[in-house]
Design a protein that fits this description.
376 residues; alpha/beta; Rossmann fold; Helicase, Ruva Protein, domain 3; 5-stranded parallel sheet; two-stranded antiparallel sheet; 9 strands; 9% strand
Length: 376
């Protein structure tokens, strides 16, 4: 991101990214001066306005990318509808307070939180509420320093990168360690609190993590809880939804499960869901990646065989049934144990690794990880 503009700085040395319209301060004033307000007798077309900012495209893309999650999708649509109506109200000169847009996403790993954060950033940008619409995904390690005087500059640098977009803080509860009086995480929280108020027109903060831990975090930091306007919970997927996610992942990678493999895969998921460290769509992705490895080994082991296109695309039942899940009830190299200490954030793109609901490693033009460019 570029930070070379000459707009005035305010609070923590962050650049003023402009007013609520999503443009820079000077441009926003010029735009307001040039706009001609509609009269009381004029009319506006909601559909035309929606088409002009392409918000429907974003919501349709979210619908395609995510299986299930109907309550989450409904909440995102409601937020989009409110902001769209606010745009129409401004055309008539109807003033209203800019709504608070800071959010909390709670749920288990692999339930689509990062994907929804990406689409939310895009939606807010198209509606003029964010100047850039990028996503900066961080964890405690990216914000909290290791010694006196290290935390403030580190936190401010992350915030500077997030200006004009969305700051996504995964496992935000690790910022606060009540048992350690010398922990520097509290300094980050205090800076965040002030930034969320002073820069609310320039950045949206999304805090994410397990629901029970996030509830404890907000109880211990009531100032943070009071700044969160939207608490959105991401439920775990049902077996049928996980099967559908797997089918979408396979289709995007141009693989297909044979009829017997489809039965075996469903059996695999039923077993895996009862085991430790199950991570929803992420576990589905991992299982299918291992099936691809077994398919490749199976094919190469018969080097003299002539192959068809279908042979290269088809996953057989044995590629699934070789999993340890069917023998010793041990999860195979899945995601790390729940709630690891200062675990790295998901930096995901919905098209990576099969797309649908899988918060996995990836690179995306609109995701800007910080520091060492790490990904989970």
């Amino acid at each position: 991101m570029s930070d070379t503009d000459d707009t005035p700085k305010r609070g923590f040395g962050l650049r003023n990214a402009g007013g609520s319209s999503g443009t820079s301060g000077g441009d926003a004033e010029k735009q307001e001066a040039q706009e001609v307000l509609l009269s009381d007798d004029d009319t506006v077309d909601v559909g035309e306005e929606e088409s002009s900012v392409h918000t429907k495209e974003v919501l349709e893309r979210l619908e395609r990318e995510l299986v299930g999650l109907e309550p989450v999708k409904a909440r995102i649509r409601e937020i989009g509808d409110l902001l769209l109506i606010d745009r129409l109200r401004r055309k008539f000169g109807i003033d209203s307070t800019r709504p608070s847009l800071h959010m909390s996403f709670t749920g288990s790993p692999g339930t689509g939180k990062t994907t929804v954060a990406l689409r939310m950033a895009e939606l807010l940008h198209r509606l003029g509420y964010l100047r850039k619409g990028h996503l900066v995904s961080v964890t405690r390690d990216d914000l909290v320093g290791q010694y006196i005087g290290h935390t403030a500059p580190k936190t401010k640098e992350v915030m500077k990168r997030a200006m004009g977009g969305v700051l996504f803080i995964d496992e935000a509860y690790y910022l606060y360690r009540q048992e350690n009086e010398r922990d520097y995480g509290q300094e980050t929280i205090e800076i965040l609190l002030q930034m969320m108020e002073q820069e609310r027109d320039n950045v949206v903060v999304i805090l994410a993590g397990y629901k029970d831990r996030m509830d404890q975090f907000f109880q211990s930091n009531p100032g943070m809880g009071s700044r969160i306007a939207h608490h959105i919970h991401f439920p775990d997927y049902s077996l049928d939804e996980l099967v559908e996610i797997g089918e979408l992942m396979m289709a995007e990678q141009q693989y297909e499960l044979s009829p017997d493999a489809q039965v075996a895969f469903r059996d695999y998921l039923e077993r895996r869901m009862r085991q430790p460290r199950f991570a929803n769509a992420r576990s589905v992705r991992n299982a299918l990646e291992r099936a691809r490895l077994r398919q490749a080994s199976r094919i190469v082991s018969d080097a003299n065989r002539r192959l068809t296109k279908a042979d290269l695309m088809r996953i057989e039942a044995d590629d699934i049934l070789q999993s340890r899940v069917f023998t010793d009830d041990s999860p195979e190299g899945d995601s790390p144990a729940p709630e690891p200490e200062a675990a790295p954030a998901d930096e995901a793109h919905p098209a990576d690794g099969g797309g649908a609901n899988a918060e996995v490693d990836g690179t995306a033009a609109d995701v800007e990880p910080v520091a060492d460019e790490k990904a989970s």
